Amino acid sequence: MSAFAFRMRAYAAAHMDYDNHLRVTWPGATAILQSEYTGGEAGRAYPVTLHGEIRGSAESLDDAQHRLAAMLGNSLSVLALASNAAIADPLALAAYGLDLSTPQPFIWYQTPAAADWFPPGERRFEPEPMERFMAAVGSHPQYALLHRAIEAYRRALSHWTPEGRLLAGEFLYIAAETLSRCILETEAADAQVTPKRLAKLRRAQTSEVYRLRVLHERVFGGDDAAREAMEEASNGFEHGYMAADDVRTRIVGVLDRAMGLVRRALIAAASPDAETERILLADAFAEPRGLVSTIQVVLGELSVTDPQQVPPAAGEVRVELEWPRGPIKAERTPAGGLVVTVPSNVKVLSLPPNTTLSLSGAGLRAANVGAYSVEAGNAEEAELGPLTDHKGLRGEGSHGT
Predict the structure, then answer these.
(1) Rounded to two decimals, what is the model's pTM?
(2) Euclidean distance between CA atoms 401 and 398, whole angstroms
(3) Is the peptide bond before 334 cis (omega within 30 degrees of 0)?
(4) Per-residue pLDDT tens for 100-135?
């Protein structure tokens, strides 16, 4: 066994302050997680990714990449639950041996530049309660089941976008069912009986009947409407007898509160101390935060150039734009605000005859970006009006606009 380091980064919707870091330990291994910032002076304008480095023993470079990466990746699921914010699948950055008394293997991977991950996640967290929560999860007697439920919740967060809520609901119900099994097994172990015997003690016919009671009462908090809708949608989708639109209809009115109920149950099941639980269940973390890709938007008006001429037929109306985007620039103001410049040149490639396109506004369709200023780029072609900031297009909150 030799000492190795493995490094990764992941796009994230939750971050620490620039100078903070989070330490995670296992027997024989230690990891440090910190937010990576970009833009502005010294690259400190806004955070976009989480960078993690883990150091521990491994048989080889391949073993280090497999085993140490899994340990570090598993911690991201717990952090996503604790912060209630999506963290994308991590990308390997580097792995290398540390004992330089002999030549050591080394590998480095290319990953996107920091500015390629945008928008920044607006949620901030302090490392200390997260460290305590990770320790509680890691020491849980039913860790395998609990972490499986937590990973499913992370997957729900990863689909927390306007277009992905169906899969968010599916993964959320997987988390709920897995958690109910975790609670059942934990309770049986605490009572030093089998799940079957526990069910009898709780006056349930079978352990499955008792698990369903746990699912209803302790995972969904007795919310019949939320549990039944999520169960019907999950069964219909998983077993293929319900159309996708019907699945969406089932969950549309209950998904938001179901996320809150299942998250509360997951945190309670990990049994952190009362102060940590209070922090994680505070209003600051109540809203799930996803990762929504940045999509620039322009508004405008199509009109005929010469009203005296016959306008083009409907079948002739086709518009094509060329829209290259330059590098995003970000600066912090003296007051602490964030000004983001998104340079773009919009050029009309194709318009119907006798037609003018006048652009009147521009903005971003994105989530969790907060109330920062956006400076738009330039418009080319004589008939285009200037692009200006259009605040109505700037997404705020978890779902974008």
Answers:
(1) 0.85
(2) 9
(3) no
(4) 999 999 999 999 877 778 777 889 999 999 999 999
